[in-house]
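Hey team,

Filing this mostly as a record. A colleague (T.K.) asked me to run one chain through the structure pipeline before their review meeting, and I want the input and output archived in the tracker in case anyone asks later how it was produced. No errors, nothing strange. Just documentation.

Input sequence:
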Amino acid sequence: MNTNVDPRSTRGTNASKQDLRVWLAEMEAAGEVTRISGAEREREIGGIVDIYQRKIGNPAVLFDDIPGYPKGHRILANILTSNRRINMTMGNPADGSEIELVKHWRKYMKEAKTFPPVEVKTGALLENVKTGDDIDLFKIPVPRWHEHDGGYYIGTGDMVVMKDPDTGWINYGAYRVQAHEKNIATVMCSKGKHGDMIQKKYFERGLPCPVAVVCGMHPALFMIAGLEIPHGKNEYDAAGGLLGEPVEVIMGPKTGLPIPAHAEIAFEGFIHPNDKRDEGPLGEWTGYYAGGLKQEPVIRIETLMYRDNPILLGAIPGIPPDDDSFYRGSYRSGAVWNQLEAAGVPGVQGVWSHAAGGSRLWLTVSIKQMYAGHSKQAGLIASQCHAGAYVNRFVVVVDEDIDPADMDKVIWAMCTRFDPREGMEVLRGCWSSALDPMAYSEKDPRNARVVIDACKPFGRRDTFPREVRVSQEVEDLVRAKFGEFLPK
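Output structure:
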């Protein structure tokens, strides 16, 4: 990490990329944001977000004039529930297709530069710094996102920053954070996730784990928080590659952890061994309250920082598609595609992680069959490679003529090319989570899953019945002559 750089030397056109407010202005100019005034935080804000999330492509929603809070204390939600906004965030053509977005992630994972973060002396985040009795999380209008939630979640569209005590590796992930008291929060990291592993290292030494929570930042930083960046790799480096420049950070005054200088809201503190309290429930990305009420680690907050007129970022889990999981689907699809190729599976034409499964529970893989058993091989590996294994339920393999993002065609292939006698494998004891409503139990969060071969039988490819579809020659003819009357 570069240090002691005067922020005035790096601010301007480039540094503005890292500001949520610049992203918000760009999205508003593109007609991608709806402003709502006067919604209260107990039921109305969450209810409105629920309605917005029911259809992919609805605009982001910005709440202001929240009763009980100063004007300008805002909440931004439904941020990444459209391919258009995801493409614009990543610098792609706004109207690029789903599979084009997957290919972008594939290229990014293989070729994109990484930029280590750069430490600066100050930043907009430090406009308000609270310590001691002045700390009060509820100065921020933290909503109850779902009416049956057990409390107020300040961390949904967030970054939870930790440091490995052995290697100094900086990790950040999107873990849910509940605000309990003015200076107390809890964090929930699923077993096996990097945050959980780092905490345990401190606790084994009898030491508190330093932690910083960022609750409003550029969506590109948040996107990286929710992705499976490999163990030991710095998410800040990856975020710099996505932004095309180093992320400017300040160091937390109590923890020394790097925090984005352009962030809207952040707090830091310590998690002490065996310091837990009841957390939840929160309506989660599977669409259920499967996690229930559990004991989770307590963050005792020592510094609260926020900008003037702060914006709380919400990425709300719920019945899919939802803001918490939709954006991850294209990344996960690219990661599975890359890992299939790395495992030696040839002929992969596309991968899609469907939003209806929270971008985890359903994977479709399209291949060009090259040998007997090829399709089953692809399905089994996709179900167990790192990017595809966590909380998966269905993997469906289809031929190259099927767009894996077109569920009508996927289901048609399943209905007409799948033989249940030979084409289905049930895998037991697989990697899941207590958030999975069909996990074996809370103490044994494994699950079973199905791999479905919906490709034409390999030995019948040449004799399989002809499809009822106009030929390309006839389609070109009628489009040339009657194109003005035809749908695109």
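Quick notes for T.K.: The longest strand covers residues 294-306. The CA atoms of residues 391 and 432 lie 4 Å apart.
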